[in-house]
Amino acid sequence: MNEHGLILQNAPHVRTSESLFTVMTDMIVAMAPLYLIAWFYYGPRALLLGLTGAATAWVLDLLGALACGRRMDLRDLSAVVTGLLIPLLMPASIPYYVVVTACVVAILAVKFPFGGTGNNLFNPAAVGFAFTAICWPELVFSYPAPMQELAVAGEVAAKTIVSPAHSLMRGAIPSLDLFDMILGNTAGPMGATNILVILACGLYLLVRRTIGWRTPLSFLLVVGMMAMAWPRSPFGTFDSVGWELCSGMLLFGAVFMMTEPVTSPKRDFAKLLYGATSGAVVMLFRYFGGFEDGFVFALILMNVFAPLFDRVCENILHQIRHGTLLPKKPAPGAENPPKERKKLPKPGLKKKTETEVGV
User: Helix or strand or coil: residue 98?
Assistant: First the structure.
């Protein structure tokens, strides 16, 4: 108790041990199995790509902090998470310089111009990948067949196959069945093909409360409904939904990228609307876009409108609290209220004048 009689204690909003360090650590732990699976399918090159991305992003984050005159927080692992996310969106045969370029764009062009950690408007990993996809589409969307060990350094000479997302874009039936896709035995981004592992990682993050369920669930529901209503290949409804959900980086992005707290809405109802709208936009990019997988481009677009979802939901909640959301129904007979009758003086009474009262 101080001299004013106030009791000094910890703020009431500090209720858990969660921090930026623990959240980023959970993300790194959740991505570790994806790198192990990529190592199993493609060899140690997959691990070196992840280390290259993480080290490059961390060094760039340090240089950015020094350039801005800030003190580097060694417990801030957000740049490391960004550097680990980028290679998982790419094929295992991607050259190292493409990963480095994506990290440069993500950290120096997206993160620091908006104020650093916690202030970026766009998802850094999504913008970094989108930049390289536009510059080197033949490298970013060229996927090696699984179960072949790639060269660690130098030019990679590997057999490439068409990904299921590319087959869907062309209106063809993918050559693999859904069971192979669920197990990750298919071509695609090296961290986004094994559906079972991604689901297990998402469950871990949910249990740890690192991510929420509202945005991914509403996102996947809308994607499934649109795939059911407008299938892109001549097969049944069930197969259409399965192919759309398991192809490309859609499920990976729903778990690891759409749930980023900085670039997504904060209110619960806003998260549901954000996820549902993002699902519709992603499918429109898939139907009419020029790339086989337009998830990152749709995510960048939705990042712009994320604050708008919070503002709309805040206005709705404000009107609900004050009872102004719906117009009040007038009481019966209030439309034509009875006219007030003019009072008449009682007969026999006469108002006294000033002379009569002796003024």
Answer: helix
